[in-house]
Amino acid sequence: MKQLLLFLFFSITAFSQKTTIPFDSNTLGESREITIGLPPSFEKNPNKKYPILILLDGDYLFDPFYGALNYGAYWDDLPEMIVVGISQNKNNERIDDSTYDEADGVPSGKGAKFFEFIGAELLPYIEKKYPVAPFRIIAGHDTTAGFLNFFLYKDNPIFNGYISLSPELAPEMENRIPEKLSNLKQPIFYYQSNGDGDIKKIQEPIKKLDENIKQVTNPALNYKFDNFKGASHYSLVLYSIPNALYQFFDAYKPISSTEYSEKIAVLQSGYVDYLTNKYAVLSKSLGLKIPIRVNDFKAIEAAILKNKAYPELDKLAEIANKNYPKSMLADYELGLMYEKMGDPKKAAKRYQSGSQLEEIGDLTKNMMMEKYDDMISQTPKK
To answer: What domain of life does the UniProt record list for this protein's source (predicted)?
Structure first.
């Protein structure tokens, strides 16, 4: 529990940017308040692209989501994101914004306008103003959680991830959503939750929806449902946020000791392929292109050494050169390969050339020269 509370409430606000502005909407015919949270690295990395998180009920969902994301990004467990919260508590806006037709169960009146506002005005504004990755998430709570599901009714949904916290479902939603998810062509991440202390009248439709989604066999769907014991309609939000984010970005996390021991070290071969595939998933399903982490290189290196698959260090060096061309990492991996394969002369040459390049991780010029001297001492004299 202490770890959960730390996760949720530790927000690195000193290094992040949060701005609340009025947004004049032609579709709604009024000005709406939106809060934009930029990542800590935003000013330092002008070419970096960030996923977008749109928060309905931004009045009270913004801070817990923003804090969780900043904390996860601090440890590089979650990607930095641009967070956009829409204020909906003024004059009961959240109810009017979520209006739907009782007969056909689709947005109507103010709800139809709000639906168009998000897709046709707010998202284009954010994507024009900021550098964004092609991965969008939308989240809401009860009334707005039910509403966000309407975006799934489109043939080509504009959001890639849906966080539905104790949703109040529109008519037939428990049947329509699974049908739409069954026919997906693009990867979709879907999370929903409730608690055993939740509002009784909405629990049955939620559980029915969960049962129906679990019958979907579409490989494009990544789905998770949480039913928290002892959680109320409101406290379940704090339990849900980290679970949803870590579900969506499971592939983003650095290689852990568990992943290493259970998935990598047990391989007979293909250690470098495992690494490249891990980052290919980030690019394909999450739209994130990031350099391979140095610690992930070291994890693959450790598996290669453990299993004496020394020739794979050549391929690892090739990838290191693509990701960190100015660093000594590629030369180090090649030097290590020659060293382990019993060629100290070639190993010495690589360690020496690497010592002239930029230090990276725990690789230093002094260490490389020590490796060079060691290999020279083992080189047969003519």
So the answer is: Bacteria
Please calculate the CA angle 209-210-211 and round it to the nearest 5 degrees.
90
Residue indicated by tokens 């579409």? 218
pLDDT tens digits for range 75-100 = 999 999 999 999 998 778 999 999 99
107-120 per-position pLDDT tens digit:
999 999 999 999 99
Domains and CATH numbers, the chain: 2-252 (3.40.50.1820), 257-378 (1.25.40.10)
Collapsed DSSP state (helix, strand, coil) of residue 259: helix
In the chain, where does DSSP find H-type helix?
2-9, 58-74, 93-97, 110-116, 123-129, 143-148, 173-182, 200-213, 236-248, 257-259, 271-286, 294-306, 312-323, 329-340, 344-354, 365-378
Side-chain half-sphere CA neighbours of 216 within 13 A: 25
H or E segment to which residue 35 belongs: strand 30-38
Considering only CA atoms, give the Rg of the chain.
25
Among 178, 189, 174, 183, which Cα is nearest to 139's? 189
pTM of the model: 0.88
d(CA 223, CA 210): 9
Where residue 183 falls (left for φ over 0; alpha for ψ -120 to 50; beta otherwise) is alpha
Measured between alpha carbons, how far is residue 108 from residues 10, 96, 222, 333 in Å? 40, 10, 29, 61
- pLDDT for 5: 40
**3-state DSSP assignment of residue 307:** coil
